[in-house]
Automatic annotation (TrEMBL), chains A, B, C, D:
SUPFAM superfamilies associated with the record: Class I glutamine amidotransferase-like
Taxonomic source organism: Paenibacillus pasadenensis
Sequence ranges assigned to domain ThuA-like in this UniProt record: 5-222
Protein name listed in UniProt: ThuA-like domain-containing protein
InterPro entries recorded: Class_I_gatase-like, ThuA-like, Trehalose_catabolism_ThuA_prok
Signal peptide residue numbers: none
Pfam families: ThuA (PF06283)
Length: 243, 243, 243, 243
């Protein structure tokens, strides 16, 4: 089996302006995730960031990407409509997409789901999060325990304005009193999407082994399979009509 | 119970240029559907068309609409982005939306579902269609038999690029050899959507009693219920954090 | 519209042996729920209990029942297989079913869902529960706030062995660290099912106005609609075959 | 990756009494499917039949089975309740199950889905079937064209009394006028189920390359993945309660 080709996309702004974030992620959030995926083997990994030409997501890069990871927060509006459409099209043609944490508010995610995916509750107080595995037979849960525990995280709470997921893998419990649908699978066109909640930039969440385990599992789950062709447009009948 | 306020939107172009369509629908497709809903009672019905200012869908009209019906075909691109966004927003806030036949390719439907909803097979040969009831306990099937039979219709065939419906009520069989998911329910934000396939402009489909029965049922199903409030943004904890 | 005919079924054992339960529910859990539904109007309410002949669920009673509520706990095994099958059949033919709290372990619920629905976590320490509304446009959430808060309840925690619900309306947060899918809609055959988590016998949960509100909403949601007939068996073709 | 261990179960009665079936399947339906899977490689295949002790499905055999295929028709009632329960339990613990054709009426399938899965339309006139691929990115559709065409088959028609599938991969068109949900994915407990319609005993359907392709794909899809543990029962809190 050929290696899965992964592109880790990051807005890459917090790391340049907030020393705390820079300390946690000296190579950027994308760098930390890419390093993990490279260590995990069986992936061919590259990265791309907002401030590169075409945000690093040229036609050529996307053509060579099986699964795209997306982390953004401050600058969703700076992503050009053209690139957002390009990513959307590629997902519909089969590319996997994994949207991380504050990427919920991105153009890419909102366009693919059709709702105001930026709408949710939040609180940035560094509280305990427990992500319970709801579908314990799901491949995205491979190798986990009953739950993932993160000692300090930003809270996200329901109501989260998303379509009901095709598969709901994780539900989060937060110390302060909220719950959240934290692991959401969707199929759109020929592509598979996974939203995974954890990853506030001021906590070392992408160094947490269980979080990294989920990311690797999700890449494998979202990678395209050959499937069948889809043909659109005018079509001749197989049966004579109007006998 | 207050009457459900319905707005029937129609592109209203075929009727002005194609004498056959004008003959079938002298008051327009919107006129035929509106007349039926008025006869059915318990609805307050108005119509709106593409060539009116703001396509007839002002803020005020939408504020006073519980359920919007949408028929379009030739001129999806002439619907302004602003009005398409306005309709999308209203659906997410609770307005019901019923998309009819070639309305599958509309901006409104595509934005709410996130896929290329214009992508399907078709053949305009006037062939027999049978819409089988798949969920026979669904309120949208109230009062039907086991299937709806339409003697002459345009064919639409799979693959239809939509997200898997939350509820699949009808599947069509076509004489020429195809099948189609013809009655598709979705929930998006606070609103309910129903896609209903039949209704090619050159056949008298919106005079068919079963088709009109489904449209009335769907309006009742899609009408907003009070539900619960959704609050978004920063939120204080109910529990003290970090003990 | 004719009144919805409701039968509230209760095991009715705790109330006879535990003085605390008897004090909270002097007329039994079924009595408290029935009294609420009678006050709410538009329902015709009767009750039935385990120790009546045929558990109070004769063919005649079920024939005259639009929606059945089910509370059981200690004596799931004392429900006869014959009556469990009778209830299952009636649901498949269109009767609504609302399963409350420890009713998750009942024969009726297990047979309709096909999994070991008794399998979940629990802790009987009287802790705070918050049921968050996940689908805020759903009719079962009508009239609620953003969440229901219950000051003291038994905890139920995931993994709960159920098929993924067709619609997930509530997710519970518990003070002690767990989450739970607390409001689950299913369609089975022609019938609609709703599982609603709260209701441990030693706390006055069925006197809580929001809990009662949900029960009334759920009865309306689960009540049968006419739908369409389903015909099974050998069938002649509409088209000649093998031309 | 270890080979997937497959057990092909067949009622194996038609082959012994109907010379036409014996001619098509000299080694039995199970033999034909097993031979294909062996040729396909990467599977460890055994067979089991109704008239063996414990129907060939001892605890030991099931313990060593990753995916079970099930073909039955005449003798669903002869499958013992005990063995049906044993298979159901194993599926809930993670074993994949693929139910073929008339296996829809089996105890095993009915118990896992909770509905009268034997209820559907049928006609045994040897008509043309076209299975359209609805989810063209699904791994079960790998390697197919837009549809599978079977020149002569028994018809199955809707209404088919099943819960709405978690994923609907195929819809069949029949020459005589019916449609059918022919490829249905479910998750139950830790296990994955796939129902695949084709396979009437008097036509050489299990020699059709596309049908065999789907069966191989489905085995790979249904094979257990490690997932996460599920713990049930009483549980201590992580948070102190009732502060």
């Amino acid at each position: 089996m050929a290696a899965i080709r992964v592109t880790v996309w990051n807005e890459y702004r917090h790391e340049k302006t907030n020393p705390r974030v820079a300390e946690i992620y000296p190579e950027g959030i994308h760098g930390a995730i890419a390093a993990h995926l490279r260590r995990a083997g069986s992936f061919e990994v590259r990265t791309a960031t907002l401030d590169e030409p075409e945000h690093g997501l040229t036609e050529e890069v996307l053509e060579q990407t099986d699964v795209l990871l997306w982390w953004g927060h401050l600058a969703h509006d700076e992503v050009s409509d053209q690139i957002a459409s390009r990513v959307q099209d590629r997902v519909l043609q089969g590319m996997g997409l994994i949207v991380l944490h504050s990427g919920h508010g991105s153009k890419v995610f909102g366009r693919l789901l059709g709702t105001r995916t930026g709408a949710l509750k939040w609180r940035d107080d560094g509280e305990r999060e427990r992500l319970w595995v709801i579908e314990h037979g799901h491949p995205i849960a491979d190798g986990l325990g009953e739950f993932i525990e993160i000692p300090k995280e930003e809270m996200y709470g329901e109501r989260f304005e998303i379509p009901a997921p095709d598969e709901l893998v994780f539900i989060s419990w937060f110390e302060g009193g909220e719950v959240f649908r934290s692991g959401c699978c969707y199929r759109r066109g020929k592509g598979r999407l996974f939203y995974f909640r954890p990853g506030h930039e001021t906590f070392p969440v992408y160094h947490h082994p269980d979080v990294l385990q989920v990311i690797g599992n999700a890449v494998r789950w979202a990678a395209p399979t050959p499937g069948a062709p889809a043909v659109y447009g005018r079509m001749a009948p197989i049966e004579p009509i109007g006998r």
